[in-house]
Protein: ATP-dependent DNA helicase RecG
Organism: Pelotalea chapellei
Amino acid sequence: MPIVTIDKASQLSLPTELLARLGLRTGDAVSIEVQDDGLMLRKVVSPKPLSDSFSRNSNHIQSEETQTLKDTVARKNLETRMQFIKGVGPKLSELLSKRGINTVEDALYFLPLRYEDRREVRPIQALRPGFTEVFTGQVITSTSKTTKGGRGFFETLVGDESGTVVLKWFNSNATFMKRIWKTGRRGVFTGEVSQFGYQREVHHPDVEWLAEEQDVNKVLAGDPVNFGRIVPVYPLTEGLNQKVMRKVMREIVDLFTVSIQELIPKFILNPMRLPGLRDALRLLHLPPTDGMLDELNSGRTLAHQAISFDEFFFWELGLALKKRGTALEEGIPFQVTHCYTKQLVKLLPFELTGAQRRVLSEIKNDMMAPHPMHRLVQGDVGSGKTLVALMAALVAVENGYQVAIMAPTEILAEQHWHTIHSWCSKLGLETALITSGLKGKEKAAVLARIADGSAQIVIGTHAVIQEKVEFARLGLGVIDEQHRFGVLQRGILRKKGINPDILVMTATPIPRTLAMTLYGDLALSVIDELPPNRTPIRTQLLFENKRQQVYESIREEIGKGHQAYIIYPLVEETEKSDLKAAAQMAEHLNAEVFPDLRLGLLHGRMTPEEKETVMAAFKAREVDILVATTVIEVGIDVPNATLMVIEHAERFGLSQLHQLRGRVGRGVSSSRCILMTPGKLSEEGEKRLRVMTSTTDGFRIAEADLEIRGPGDFLGTRQSGLPDFRVASILRDGAILEQARQAAFDLLASDPELIQTGHVPLRKELLRRWGQRLELGAIG
Ligand code: ADP
Ligand code: MG
C-alpha cells in the first residue's frame, strides 16, 4: 500500500508508484479538496483533447483509486496508536492499554459505563438523595474521624447560602486530605447524594477547585467537557481519571469519527431510524444536552442500537456468506442403500421416535446432496442423539467412507465407543477408539488402521483432530456436545477429509439468539421428543440439615435394585474453601455412612484407564453409588441409576445442573434429583435453583441460565466460538440481532457474492473484521 508522507517543509510527496497508478506525471496539476472524511486528490484535466473512450476509462480508474486511497487513509487513521494523540504520553498510553485501548479505533468503541447529569448546578438545600448532583460551596470544616466499628474516614462540611452537606471519604490518607480540603476553599462538587436520617452526604465526590475571586459560572462555562451537560463516566483502571479520559476522548471523537466508514446501506438503516456509526459514536461519547439519561444509562439509545446492529450485521453477513460458500462447494453425494441402517433398526430393542426419524431423514437428504452437509442437531438430554449419529455414520460407511466422531471428554468418548462398537460388531463393522491417553505401539496401531481405512468408525476426544491422525477416506465428521468445542475445531475436522459432511450435536438447548450467533451458518434439526416410557424426574432443593434424610433416600433407592450418583463440585479440598471434596467424602461415605454398599469414585485427576474401570463397574451394577465430580456431566448413560444427589448445587451453572440431572430419568423407573445446599443462599442463588425445581424443560433452563450468567459463562469456555462484540450484547439486543441477521441474509440473497459496486467495501470490511474467525479467506 503506498504511503504518503509529509516532509519537514510541510510538503506532501506522493510516491512514484502511486503517481504512475493515478496517471500523474511531474508537472501535472492536482487539485486537493478537503472533505469531511479525508482528502480528495484530483488531477486537473489538461485542455489537450483526448479520445472519448480513453478519457472515460481513465476517469473511472482514477475515481476508484481515489476511493481506495481514501479508505486506506481512513483505516490508517483509525489504527493510530494512542501515544500519538495530543495529551497522551507514554505513561497514559500504557494505562489505556491496560483497558484494551491501543488504537484510536479501540478508544472510539470504548463506551462509557454510565452517564452523569451535570446539566444543572443545584443549591445545596435542593440536592436530591439518590441523584448524582453538581453543587458549589465552601469548605467549612474538615476532620478525620473513626466509625463505631473502628474504621477511619475523612469528613468535611461544605456549605453555600442555602445550606450544608457532609462529604466523606473512606480509606483515604488523612494528612494528604487535610492539606487539600482547607477551610475556606471553594469548589464545584459532583457526586451521588445519599440521606442518613436528617443528614445528606456525598461520598467520594469529584471536585474542581475555584481560585479566589473566580466566578463559578465562568468556570463552568469554560469547561464544556465536564460541566453543563450529560457527562460520560468511563470504566477506568487505577491511575486513570475521568477528567483525563474525557479530554482524550473528546479529542479523538473530534478528530477521528470522520475516519469511520459508513458501510451499511442507508436503505437498511433508515427504516429502523438508526443513525450512522459516526453520529452514534459521537453521541455516546458526547451526549447532547437534551439526551435521554435513562436510555443512555441502560444502553438502549438508537446510537447504542446502531453500533450493535453494525457489529451483528457484519457477523451475520459472514455467517451467511459461509453458509452459501459451503452450499456451493462440491461434496460427497452419498447413496442411501439401507444396507446397514435397516439391519441396525432390526437389532434395536425399541422403535425410533418420530422426532429421531424426522431428523434422520433431514440428515439423509443433506448427505445425498452433492454439497457438504453442515447440520446442527439439537436435542435435550436423553433424546437419543447418539443413535441418530450412528445411523448417519452407517450411511457413510455403506458408501465406503470413514466416519469420525468427536466427544469432549474421555469418558464420553469411551461410552460412545462402547455403545457404537457393540452395535457395529453385530453388523460386522470395524471401529476404533482414540483418546489422548493412547500411547506407543497401541497408538501407532490405531493410527495405522485409521490411515489404511480399515477402521470405519473412529471415535475419540479432540485427539481425533490431532495432526498425526490421517484418514484414508473421511466422509462424515460428527461433533458431540458441540458447545464444548469451538468453530476452529469444526474447521480442523473438516480438513481431515475432502469436504466431508459435518454433523454437530448439542444437548445444551441454546437460546435462539445465541444459536443464531454461534451456529448461524448451520442448518438446524431439533429432536423435540423424548423416547416413550420416561417418567419425569422429581427435583427437590434440600438444605444441609436434611442430610440424614438424603442418605435414607439413597439407601431406599439402592434397596430397590437401583443405583445413585453423588456429585461434588471439586476434586480436592482447597485451603480456602469449605467444599467437601469428592475424594474425602467418598472415603467418609464408604467407611461411615454406607459401609455395606459398594461405592465408586470418579474424578478428573484419574487416568483414563482408572476412569474407564470405574464407569464399567457402575454400568455393570458392580457399584451402587458413584461419587463423582462433574466429569460425568455430559452424556453418561446408565438407565438403572435413578437418584442423583448434587452437593453444593449453588456452585453449578443451571445448564450444568440440567446436564447432570439428565444422567437420571433414563430408564422406565421414576427418578429423583436432590439439590443440596449449605443453607444460606443468595437471592440470586435461590432463584437459580428454583428454576431447576420448577421445570425440566431444557430450553427454559437455558434461557434462564443465559439471563443470569451472560453468554460467555453460559458457554463455559473461552474458545466457545462466541465472537467478541465490543458493544453488542446478545442478551440485551436480541431483537437487533434478529434484524441484523435478516438484513444480512437478504442482502446476500440480492447480491450473493457482494460484488455490486456499493457492496464491495462491505465485503472488504467483513473480511477485515471476521475473515479469519469465520474462515472466510477463500471468499475474499
Ligand atoms: P442424548 O441425546 O442425551 O445423547 P442418548 O443418545 O445417550 O441421549 O440416549 C439416551 C438413552 O435413550 C440411551 O440409553 C438410548 O439407547 C436410548 N434411546 C435412544 N433412542 C431411543 C428410542 N427411540 N426409544 C427408546 N430408547 C431410546
Ligand atoms: Mg449424548
